[in-house]
Amino acid sequence: MNLLKYNTPAFATRLFILTFDMLVVFVSIHLAAWLRMDFDWGGAYAFFAWPVLVVLLVRLITFRWFRTYAVIIRYAGAADVIQVFLSTLAGSLFLLGLSVLGRFYGYNLSISILFIEFFLTLTLLSASRILMPIAYELLFQTKRPKENAIIIGAGQLGAMTRNVIRQDKNADFEIVAILDDNPSVRNKFLDGIPVLPPEQLVELNQEERVDKAIFAIENISNKRKNEIVDLCIAEGVKVLQVPFQSKWREGEFQANQIREIQIEDLLNRPVISLLEDQLYASYQNKVVLITGGAGSIGSEIIRQLVKYQPAEILLLDQAETPTVNMTLECREEHGFDNIRGIVADVQDAGRIREVFDSYRPEIVFHAAAYKHVPIMEQYPREAVGVNVGGTKILADLSNEFGIEKFIMVSTDKAVNPTNVMGATKRIAEIYIQSLNEHSDTQYITTRFGNVLGSNGSVVPRFKKQIAKGGPVTVTHEDITRYFMTIPEASLLVLEAGAMGDGGEIFLFDMGDPVKIVDLAKRMIRLSGFKPNVDIEVEITGLRPGEKLYEELLSTKENSLATHHDKITRARVRKVPYSLAQQQIGALIELIPQSHMDLVAKMKEIVPEFKSNNSVYQSLDKSHPSSIPSQ
User: Fold this and answer.
1) Is 409:443 a contact under the CB 8 Å cutoff?
2) Is 601 noted as a catalytic residue in this protein?
3) Strand, coil or helix: 328
4) Could you tell me the pLDDT band of residue 259, with boundaries at 50, 70 and 90?
5) Which of 80, 278, 402, 422 is the most exposed place for a label (fewest CB within 10 A)?
6) DSSP symbol at 248
7) pLDDT per residue over 76-133, tens digit each?
8) How confident is the model over 554-610, as pLDDT tens digits?
9) Which of 21-30, 287-296, 350-359 has the least mean pLDDT?
10) Peptide bond before 487: cis, by omega within 30 degrees of 0?
11) 387 Cβ contact list (under 8 Å, min separation 6)
12) Residue 489 pLDDT > 90, yes or no?
């Protein structure tokens, strides 16, 4: 027998609760007899010979059977009250049986007294379970200074957030108010907390300093959410966010899941609606290859793709560690086991041929690319090798192996490019469009702007700079960019791939352009600091190849609507396959040559390529177009 288990705080707590419960039974049976005898202690005492011992023994047995003493005091609640009810009911039914049986043998166990005792015991024990957390907090909780916080949202999620914070001993919030736009709940109370309109935050902050605001509402427009966030920022209140229910760990919400609100949460864009049936028809039971599958866009395409039940996903990437991590995530978090990690370089034609020959993909998403503008301006050989050469290898093999669809992820920087990276992506677009006219494979291009949170994007960089105390660096005070979230971009890539018939360049609705300096200042404010007071915003000057404004269509292009309101189709000049093949082949042969020769050839293929803030501007004197428009 292990005696050590009896020398623990848990055992002492359970013994205390069981002793308390038995004391409640003892008091209840006395009160029941006293009430039954019309407050005559003499008549009541006549009942106390053997019956009280029987009641105590039966209650002890049922408490032990139902383990009503196994209570975590600070979390006691409805479930424990139910256990008390079942235990008390079972004991009373057994006592009732004894009372009926005892009458045949001359033992009187009063049914009326047992009836009164049942209600007294049930009421007192139930009340104790409800009051236990309050008593625990008053007696044992260490009092720590807590920050005043408000909850935004008086609905179910707001009420749940309030309860979770109240029960978590490590939570450092003291909820002083709840804000909600709904007029029907204003000036009422939720668990003792006043519910106020959001506009009353200013007055509340003056009366009682508010440190944090916790967003606990899902059904709110981005516009209204931004308005409330701006109000909080203006009042110096740090804004936090309760995760959506789909993000809760194992379906449960805990206080430590409350996180700082991110700039991605405030992107003013409506939810994308998808044609689910069309996506299932396109991807279900298909072998799908994703190049760059461990990168920002490629990995999110995989996360979205698994919903449509492909037969197998081939994740191809040059980086082995992210490849392993993504395959594990797919299996462990998304429950999709049919994923194969493949380490390969898209420039290695022999290796890519092996992949096609071994695994026979049916659909290819080509997201592998060099995409960073300033660094690619220094290394055009590498940019051409991957973005043009790698794309050509994949596109040619897709044609050879009879791939159904080839979907390339392009960029808005391919429009009127001012840098090497954008020009390489435009050349890749030209090649796969021209190849589409000579192949049964459907070649589709998707073009969109910057993706919030992607590797190397401005948002992670700003976060690191803010964490270090600044300065936050912006290249130009007027520079603007289009933004969308990684999941949004990936979903639209899947949708475009499903709707395309081949030869299209699909453009995604990027919303309104965002001034980068405004984005930087807002991120600083969201972090609880003041721009140019706590953290400086420093203008560093445009980098090589960088331009102030991004475009989604070139001056020679226009667009056509599709059935999806977030996707349009670009009408672009087409290039004869023979000419595209000849010129792009010549470009690839120039890779070992000088950077100037290589970039000059790129400008010949893409005459609208005009370098900006770059050493290659000297090549822009005169380059007549050698690719006729159609």
Assistant:
1) no
2) no
3) helix
4) confident
5) 402
6) S
7) 777 788 888 999 999 888 888 888 777 766 566 678 888 888 899 889 888 888 887 7
8) 545 567 777 777 788 877 778 899 999 999 999 999 999 999 999 999 999 999 999
9) 21-30
10) no
11) 369, 370, 421, 424, 425, 427, 428
12) no
Q: How many residues does the chain have?
A: 630
pLDDT at 268 over 60: no
- 3-class DSSP assignment, residue 349: helix
Interval 439-481: pLDDT, tens = 999 999 998 877 776 666 788 788 888 888 889 999 888 888 8
* Three-class secondary structure of residue 171 per DSSP: coil
CB atoms within 10 A of CB 271: 7
The pLDDT-based confidence of 403 (bands split at 50, 70, 90) is very high
Q: In b/e form, how buried is each residue of 285-318, taking b as 16+ CB within 10 angstroms?
A: ebbbbbbbbbbbbbbbbbbbbbebebebbbbbbb
Query: 39 by DSSP, 3-state: which?
Result: coil
Which runs of consecutive H residues, i.e. helices, occur in 168-287? 201-207, 222-234, 276-283
Identify each DSSP E strand in 166-247 by its residue range: 173-179, 189-190, 193-196, 212-215, 238-241
d(CA 491, CA 486): 9
Structural domains for the chain: 3-139 (no CATH), 147-261 (3.40.50.720), 276-620 (3.40.50.720)
Catalytic residue selected from 212, 238, 405, 413: 413
Token output for 327: 């395959």
Measured N-to-C along each axis, helices 486-499 and 296-305 cross at an angle, to the nearest 10 degrees, of: 60
CA 577 – CA 575 distance, rounded (Å): 6
Q: Tell me if residue 174 falls in helix, strand or coil.
A: strand
| 180 closest CA partner among 201, 195, 191, 159 | 195
Helix (H) or strand (E) holding 88: helix 78-102
As a whole number of angstroms, the distance between CA 198 and CA 202 comes to: 9
3-class DSSP assignment, residue 16: helix
pLDDT in tens, 185-241: 877 887 778 888 888 888 888 887 888 888 888 777 777 888 888 888 888 888 888
DSSP bridge pairs for 524: none
CA dist 489 → 279, 409, 448, 484, 523 (Å): 15, 10, 8, 7, 22
H/E/C letters for each residue in 508-552?
ECCCCCEEHHHHHHHHHHHCCCCECCCECEEECCCCCCCCCCCCC
Question: Rounded CA gap, 392 and 592, in Å?
Answer: 18
As to burial, measured by CB atoms within 10 angstroms (0-12 exposed, 13-18 middle, 19+ buried), residue 361 is buried
